[in-house]
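Input.
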Amino acid sequence: MNRKPMPLQDQRGLSLVEILFALVLISLSILGVAQLFPSAARGQVRDKMAAGASYLAQEKLESLSNLAWNDANLTLGRHPASGTEACGDGNQWGRFWQVAAMPAPLDNLRKITVTVQWMATGKSGSVSSVTYVRR
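Output.
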């Protein structure tokens, strides 16, 4: 029994080389996207710290603006005199404020600048807010 080999028909499908090439492309794409996640997480932490600092600065400005003109916290100069006042959850932020006299004819005003500093993901940051109080 001699059998004749069947003629090759039009075969459809992918060769092993094509499949390997596709897998390499997909792997490289996934690795490229995966590298974005750590930088996005760092950005999210940085934004959270900045938002918290803005809140803490505004909070201090409001408490200082309700004080009497001759209160010790509204004397001219930096408060606290050195270092910062720890604040926020877990004392992650440090806060200080500067009180400055305004020149005439605005000598009945004092300029208060509150600065909140933090350190996150190996980088420091700060936010400053300003208000004026009247005698």
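The two ends are 117 Å apart (CA to CA).
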